[in-house]
TrEMBL record:
Matches recorded under PANTHER family: DIGUANYLATE CYCLASE DGCT-RELATED (PTHR46663)
All copies of domain GGDEF, residue ranges: 181-307
Signal peptide: none
Organism taxonomic ancestry: Bacteria, Bacillati, Actinomycetota, Actinomycetes, Micrococcales
Residue ranges constituting the PAS domain according to the UniProt record: 21-70
Protein's organism: Cellulomonas marina
CDD domains, sorted: GGDEF, PAS
Name the record gives this protein: PAS domain S-box-containing protein/diguanylate cyclase (GGDEF) domain-containing protein
Amino acid sequence: MTPDDCDPRSDDVPPAVPSIDDAALAACVAAMRSAVLVADARDADLPLVFVNDGFEQLTGYARASALGRNCRFLQGPGTDQAVVGALRVGLAEGRYTRARLLNYRADGSTFWNDLRLSPVHHDDGTLRYWVGVQHDVTAQVAQETALARAATQDPLTGLANRTVLAEHLRGEVARASAAGRAVAVLFLDLDDDKQVNDSRGHLAGDQLLVEIGRRMRAVLRPGDLVARFGGDELVVVVGDLPLESGGRVRELVEGLRQAVERPVPLPDGDVRVGVSIGVAVHPHDAADGDTLLAVADAAMFRDKRSR
C-alpha cells in the first residue's frame, strides 16, 4: 500500500479533459469529406469566411472565388424561392435551420443540397458565425421523384393513372356541387390501335398512345385532367362548367376526335386511328364520380356500335 492509497483526496481529483486548439480544430473541419462553410454573422450579407475542400469538390468553386461572397451564388433559375425564404426566416431568428434546395455548380450543372445551418455564439451571447454542412442528395431526390411519379402517373404515357383519376373526379364533383356548376367526363376508346400493334409491333402502338395523350392535353385547359384508364381507354375530366354546358361539351368532343384521328407519324409511316367517345355530365347524368364514369363508359360503347 502506498501513501496515495490512503489519501482521501486522490479520488476527488477529476481526470484531465482532452482539449484541441483552434488550429487543430480548423484542420479537422477542413479535412471533412462533407462540404463545410462558415459565414460571418456580424455582416448583414453573411459573407463566407471559410470553405473546406469538400465544398470545393461538391460545388466546383475554388476557395478563392467563394470567400467574401454570400452563398446565394449557388442558386439558379430552378432554386425554389419559397425554400430560400424559409431559410432566411431561420437565419433572421438565429436558430438551427435545415433545407433541401436545388443548387448550381460552377460549371452550371445542378445538384440537390441538403443544407444544415447552425449558429455559433460568442462568449457574450452575440451571434458570430453560421456553420453550414452540405450533403449532395441528388440520387435520393431522383429516387423519391420516381416513386412519386409511379404512384400517380401511367408509366408509358405520363398521363394520370386511375388512382389520381378517382381522387380528381371526387374533388371536381364536390366543388361543382357546392358552387352549382357542372363536371363533364369523356370516356374515349381507340378503335384501330390493335391493328397498329399487329401490323407495326407493340413499340409503334406505344408511340401512338404517347402522341395521342400529348395531343389530348393540348386541346384541354391546364386544370383539366387526362387519364389512362387501361389499355387503349382514356378518360377526360373537365370541371367548373356552367350547368347548361352542352355546347361546350360538344366542342370538346369534336376537338378531341379531330386531335386523335389526325395521322400520327411513326418511323415506318403515318398511321390513323378512330375513336369512340362517351360523355356524362354532373349533375344531369349522375351525382357521384363512379356513376359518372359508368355512364360515360356506356355512352362510349353506344358510340362505338353506331360507327
